[in-house]
Amino acid sequence: MTEVTKTLCPYCGVGCGLEVSPPAQPGKATHRDGQGNPIWRVRGDKAHPSSQGMVCVKGATIAESLDKNRLHYPMVRDSLDQKFRRVSWDEAFDLITKRIQAVRFTQGPEAICMYGSGQFQTEDYYIAQKLLKGCLGSNNFDANSRLCMSSAVAGYIQSFGADGPPCCYEDLELTDCAFLIGTNTAECHPIVFNRLEKYHKRNRKVKMIVVDPRRTPTAEAADLHLAIRPGTDIDLLNGIAHLLMRWNYIDVGFIDDCTSNFPAYAEVICHYSPEIVADRCGIDIKDLETAARYWGESQHVLSLWSMGVNQSSEGTAKVRTIINLHLMTGQIGKPGAGPFSLTGQPNAMGGREAGGLAHLLPGYRLVKNPQHRAEVEEFWGLKRGQISPNPGLTAWDMITGLEDGTVGLLWIAATNPAVSMPDLERTKAALMRSPFTIYQDAYYPTETATYAHVLLPAAQWSEKTGVMTNSERTVTLCPAFRRPPGEAKADWEIFAEVGRRLGFVGEFAFANSAEVYAEFVKLTRDRPCDMTGLSHEQLRSQGPTQWPHPAE
Q1: What distance in Å separates the CA atoms of residue 444 and residue 442, rounded to the nearest whole number?
Q2: Which phi and psi (to 5°) does residue 184 adopt?
Q3: Which of 153, 371, 516, 524 can bridge 123 by disulfide, Cβ–Cβ 3.0-4.6 Å?
Q4: If you write DSSP's letter for every residue of 359-375 in order, what string do you get?
Q5: Which fold has domain 75-146+347-542?
Q6: Could you tell me which CATH number the domain at 1-68 has?
């Protein structure tokens, strides 16, 4: 009988369940990649709560990338104008630990930085936080969530006190009005959109509003497309709020019981009359009024947004303005309603749960909060005050730190900033000035490898066991179903070994990723947005674990 591994697609934050089977037996027809390797067979997992068996073309062809351009063993060079030479893991670890110690004692821990990725599993994220923020005393861990999700993080924290979307995919099929802004969901999160579109077609009373300057495939499916001028999102949202208040589509009881500062908000939106907003946004007053009526007359309003809102100079303000619409109308905390940020990376949500941004600690704790720091220090067995009270450097701060010499060591893992960072020419110039860059990735060559002094081969998603959390906070166990190529190691194993060689032996005495996850769950249990509390073994036996619906 062919063994089937249930896992998660590692491409985006939708978090579709997959079933992976070994290549066909010798002698049978077997599909092969460009390098002659047999390709594992992939199909959607019908039992997975998020995707229900659906899978897009990226997920369906994921196995084709498993063996392409892989980094097989550690390599180092003394300067960027030299060629890499192969070394043993012992040599690589010795070099890394010596450089970390040198930077700690000459520039201080604040000169040590790590830039991670939503491609990490939660165990990778957690061990990186323990090493950097705990043992080394540097909060300079940031991830590429900074580039796509930090606006949503900040907006949720400022509005709710915690960064956890109060919605789930089930709401897609329970809403009366879907309000999509700054997202081309049909192309960027196709399985989410498939669920919404099928429901919308079956229920013609359900309204879909799409806000986008472009006429995208998402906009084509809408009942109302608001093609606003770029940069006028807040004008539009406040204009809708103005009409909702004028027409008395507000939930006074909810406002009184569950919110604060509504009079100040009301004073702001009173200045956004339909005439002013329609002129600024470049839309008809009739369309603005239609949008407000759809929202106001619906019992269950679900808003969805992505990078068009988050990747903006006013991203946090836009997120809070979306949330304010839900708060003033009581459209939150019930089925089919709420503000829902669609995550870009497959485990960006799990990364934030594990503290994977420069201002966070595991369990949605904040480095600025003395009680939060004390809780983590006690749990990790650290001295009081060992975790810095100051937020670390953000991803862009690390680049400017390379420019002014305040960053003495940069560790990049599972991401390719020489392609993905803003202001690429400036980024590349800064990377060229780095005194010491460690680059940990599954693939080689990449653009960022050009700027590295050390290359560390990382095991890919298919070759290590760990968990990932998708946009709706469904936690899925992703078991390894093949051996890592060459000498590649799981990211958490690399971080833990460096920690042990720096003298923190007891802090990183983990035999496997299940032990790492068990410690993570223990630390994050009973937080405002606590974790599943299930072990790897329980996740394996019970299947993906979905958060309770907010109304339950």
Answers
A1: 7
A2: -100, 70
A3: 516
A4: TEETTTEETT-HHHHHH
A5: Rossmann fold (3.40.50)
A6: 2.20.25.90
Per-residue pLDDT at 28? 53
Q: Say whether 150-341 and 1-68 share the same fold.
A: no
Q: What angle do CA 197, 187, 442 make, to 5 degrees?
A: 130
CATH code for the domain defined by 150-341:
3.40.228.10
Q: Where are the domains of the chain?
A: 1-68, 75-146+347-542, 150-341
Contact 416, 446 (CB under 8 A): yes
- Please, which residues have CB within 8 angstroms of residue 548's CB and are 6 or more apart in sequence? none
Dihedral angle over CA of 121, 123, 126, 131, nearest 10? -110
HSE at residue 433, side-chain half, CA atoms within 13 A, is 15
For residue 463, give the nearest of 434, 484, 477, 437 by alpha carbon. 484
Q: What is the pLDDT of residue 34?
A: 57
CA–CA separation, 137 and 184 (whole Å) = 40
Hey, how many other C-beta atoms are within 10 angstroms of the C-beta on 124? Answer: 32
**Residues pairing with 526 in the sheet:** none
Centre a 10 Å sphere on the Cβ of residue 324 and count the other Cβ atoms it contains: 21
Work out whether strand 75-76 and strand 85-86 pair parallel, antiparallel, or are unpaired. Answer: antiparallel
Q: Which residues of the chain have pLDDT under 70?
A: 1-2, 25-37, 528-532, 546-552
Picking from 427, 426, 424, 453, the residue whose alpha carbon sits closest to that of residue 440 is 453
Q: What is the DSSP letter of 381?
A: T
Q: What is the DSSP letter of 206?
A: S
Could you tell me the CA-to-CA distances from 25 to 22, 66, 259, 478, 482 in Å, in that order?
A: 8, 19, 61, 24, 16
d(CA 359, CA 153): 11
Q: Is 296 within 8 Å of 247 (Cβ atoms)?
A: yes
Amino acid at 12: C
Q: Which residue has the tokens 């947004």?
A: 305
Nearest CA to 320 out of 265, 254, 258, 244 is that of 265
Contacts of 199 (CB under 8 A, 6+ apart): 172, 173, 206
Compute how many other C-beta atoms are within 10 angstroms of the C-beta atom of residue 4: 15
